[in-house]
Amino acid sequence: MSAYIQGRNVNLTFRPPNRRPVRALQNFDIDVNEGEFLSIVGPSGCGKSTFLNVLLGLAKPDSGDIMLGGKRIEGPGTDRAMVFQEFGLLPWRTVQSNVELGLELKGVATETRREVSQRLIEMVGLVGFETHYPHELSGGMKQRVGLARALATDPDVLLMDEPFAALDAQTRDLMQVELLRIWQEAKKTVLFVTHQIDEAIYLSDRVMVMTKRPGQAKKIFAIDLPRPRDYEMRVTREFNDLKLEIWNELKDEITSR
Ligand SMILES: Nc1ncnc2c1ncn2[C@@H]1O[C@H](COP(=O)(O)OP(=O)(O)OP(=O)(O)O)[C@@H](O)[C@H]1O
Ligand SMILES: [Mg+2]
Question: 225, exposed or middle or buried, with CB in 10 Å at 0-12, 13-18, 19+?
């Protein structure tokens, strides 16, 4: 059986006017199973965000195949949602109306929108902040709004581009726990990009290491640690062995520029 998300030989070169072309992805292959949590780590500029944009349907590869549930990805769709590193919230909209954005675009009735947004606002712990604007929130709170907004349209696939990078260490830990809970409850397929190997191992079923640009899949690690996962797991021998293995694979890509 073929994988839920399947990328084969994906090539993408950016051709900015009056600049040299940049080859971002080269023969990039990936398989993601339905309901899987897969993380991608790789050097800065290796094409991780580019690949998520291809999956989202915003970037078009020059060649190669990208399939989702047996269908070729031709453009954006409500079966996929992205959580961005910079939150991507609309500053003139309140928490509630940011969360409801995707539902509005889908033409969902006000009453239903309210029900969905209220449930998600509760889920991410922002009750009482419904009418606040993004500038009145902390980074962690903005990130929660971004997560709630992505979940509002009930997508099958969550694309997460370094979603916790701007958070302080403790908030980040809490958000990781929260994300695992949501993932387990809502049974989404998650593609998660991060620079933190710890975070990738802790969250994932598998971790992919990419080469430096032009990005290729270098190696995939299966994370056979039991779930549910707890914080203590991060100090176990198995966890740290994996961390070292992944680091060794990644290190070569970072140091051989
Ligand atoms: N819209 C664009 N136009 C031109 N070049 C681009 C564009 N977007 C990305 N690139 C280039 O493509 C390459 C891959 O970028 P990408 O954002 O995918 O990297 P990344 O792996 O997400 O890096 P980081 O870890 O720093 O976020 C980079 O060299 C970048 O300069
Ligand atoms: Mg990026």
Answer: middle
**pLDDT in single tens digits along all 257 residues of the chain:** 689 999 999 999 999 999 999 999 999 999 999 999 999 999 999 999 999 999 999 999 999 999 999 999 999 998 999 998 777 899 999 999 999 999 999 999 999 999 999 999 998 889 999 999 999 999 889 988 998 999 899 999 999 999 988 888 888 888 899 899 889 888 899 999 999 999 999 999 999 999 999 999 999 999 999 999 988 999 999 999 999 999 999 999 997 65
Q: CA 226 from chain center: how many Å?
A: 22
Q: Which residues line ligand 1 (CB under 6 A)?
A: 14, 16, 22, 24, 42, 44-50, 213
Distance from the CA of 206 to the center of ligand 2, in angstroms?
19
- Which ligand sits closest to the CA of 213? 1
Q: Structure pTM? A: 0.93
Which atom belonging to ligand 1 lies closest to the Cα atom of 52?
A: 18
List, edge to edge, every strand of the sheet that includes 71-72. Answer: 22-32, 5-14, 63-68, 71-72
- Give me the domains of the chain, ranges plus CATH numbers: 1-74+199-257 (3.40.50.300)
